[in-house]
Amino acid sequence: MALEGTLKDFSLADIFQLIGLQRKTGVLTLRSPEDVVTISFLEGRVVGADSLNKRLEDRLGQVLLKTGAVSQTELEGALRTQMETLERLGHILLRHSIISKDELRKALEKQILQIIFRVFRWQNGDYHFSQETSVDYDAELVAPMSSESILMEGARMLDEWPIIEKRIPHRGIVFIQTQAARKVEVAPDDEMLEEADLDLVAETAPPTGADRLRISATEADILALVDGASSVDDIVRRSPHGDFETCKALYALLSRALIRQATRDEIARAAQSQNLSAIAAPPEAPRLPWLLIALVPLLVLSFVVARRNPLNPVFGPSSALAPRFVTTISWARMHGVWQIVQGRATLVGAFPETLAELVHERYIPQELLADPWQRPYRYVTREQSVRLSGNAFDGTPDPDLVLSVRLGHPPEPSEPGRGVSLLAP
Q1: Are 178 and 272 in contact (CB under 8 A)?
Q2: Residue 174 half-sphere exposure toward CB, CA atoms < 13 A
Q3: Is the dihedral of CA 258, 261, 263, 264 positive or negative?
Q4: What DSSP letter does each residue of 268-322 carry, written as one string?
Q5: Residue 176: closest CA among 66, 248, 254, 277
Q6: Percent of the chain having pLDDT more than 90?
Q7: What are phi and psi for residue 176, nearest 5 degrees?
Q8: Element (H, E) at 261
């Protein structure tokens, strides 16, 4: 089935409905000036989604962090492991028992839906559906989602976003709690169902006297983040809920007069109060690093005898001391380039073909791609390995100036435009 055109002529809702009704399998690619998004379908059901310019709140690690499944320390450790092994983040967290499979499934579903629901708001763009016999996805961790249910939720969001944007026209607004916010209590979920739609959230006066206003658990979570210094964008990033749910809760709190837009003086005072609180926080009592003291002699010895150390007594001070020192500088520069190569591979899912791509994509300046003697580093990519190497001061290959990584089995060849590689968690 050939399906392509512009979103002005054929809306995303129509596309979803067509693919769902005809139970098609393939990849839908949507392009706009701001992003490129791919959505994978298996027999009319959604099994994956990813974007080229993935926002921070759409990244799997950030989704897990916002929901409390991982801590900042655990996430940073997993990301460091990912930089070294290029393994999928979700699999690293599972292997170290940091999260459960159920937590990962929920996070992946939320990540997919966030990307899709954002595309529903696009006014312009092109689309192309590539029909396939199958698509790659992790069947163990991703449950196919009904196109009809996603379509219904997306249509509801489209109806409610304009209402929200009338009260929250941009993400830079800062809100502050009113006195009435002290008189709220969290109501059971079933009690708040009748106010699920925004058109049912009427403007209400703040509670007076002993009256207490009931709010939902989601609204309570967002109210706790309103501090007079954080912008809407800050609240969205820190919220355990999605973009739409967070903004909708802010709208509801505004309608109930529990929050209001902060003045410049209030923002300044709130920021100053936060800074003073950070300064006044008692520092952690220093601990005597007994183990480090015991290891200092070994650390010094290992540094002195390191092969790349120009002061190594095995080689001894000689006329070659300066070249060896510059070789050490070259190795440090290579190591920095190598870190950028691996980081870029993690971000886009592939190693660059040449180092010039890093300069073109503004990852690194041109001058850092050559050694201190102005000889360019050698960068070679093969099917199962990537290698970066340099020369010694005399121009001969130096076995100490070699960095490489072995890749797994080469992927099965796929047709251009499938976008399947973007769907890995």
Answers
A1: no
A2: 14
A3: positive
A4: HHHHHHHHHHHHHSPPPPP---HHHHHHHHHHHHHHHH-TT-TT-TTT-SSTTHH
A5: 254
A6: 25
A7: -135, 145
A8: strand 259-261
C-alpha angle 43/46/50, rounded to 5°? Answer: 135
Kind and range of the H or E element at 401? strand 397-406
Residue 272, judged by CB atoms within 10 A of its CB (0-12, 13-18, 19+), counts as: exposed
CA distance 393 to 262: 62
Q: Which two tokens stand for residue 41?
A: 């379908």
Q: Which residues of 226-242 are buried (b: 16+ CB within 10 A; e: fewer)?
A: bbbbbbbeebbbbbebb
Q: Distances in Å between the alpha carbon of 238 and those of 120, 146, 287, 403?
A: 23, 29, 32, 38
Which residues, in sequence order, are CB contacts of 402 under 8 Å at separation 6+?
387, 388, 389, 390
d(CA 186, CA 184): 7
Question: Which pLDDT value is given to residue 343?
Answer: 79
Provide the token pair at 289: 């690093």
Neighbouring C-beta atoms of residue 130, cutoff 10 Å? 20
Separation between Cα atoms, residue 201 and residue 254, nearest integer Å: 10
Mean pLDDT, rounded, for 24-28: 94
| Structural tokens at position 349 | 């899912």
**Amino acid at residue number 394:** D
Q: How many CB atoms lie within 10 A of CB 268?
A: 13
**Residue whose structure tokens are 């890995």:** 424
Residue 207's alpha-carbon distances to 11, 179, 194, 337, 400, in angstroms, are: 44, 10, 20, 60, 73
pTM: 0.56
Full DSSP string of 30-74 = EE-SS-EEEEEEETTEEEEEEETT--GGGSHHHHHHHTTSS-HHH
> Which two three-digit tokens encode residue 271?
């920021």
Nearest-10 Cα torsion for 279, 282, 284, 287: 120
List the chain domain ranges.
3-158, 168-275, 307-406
d(CA 32, CA 38): 12
Q: Do 12 and 131 touch, CB atoms closer than 8 A?
A: no
pLDDT tier for residue 398 given thresholds of 50, 70 and 90 = confident
pLDDT at residue 198 above 70? Answer: no
pLDDT for residue 160 is more than 70: yes
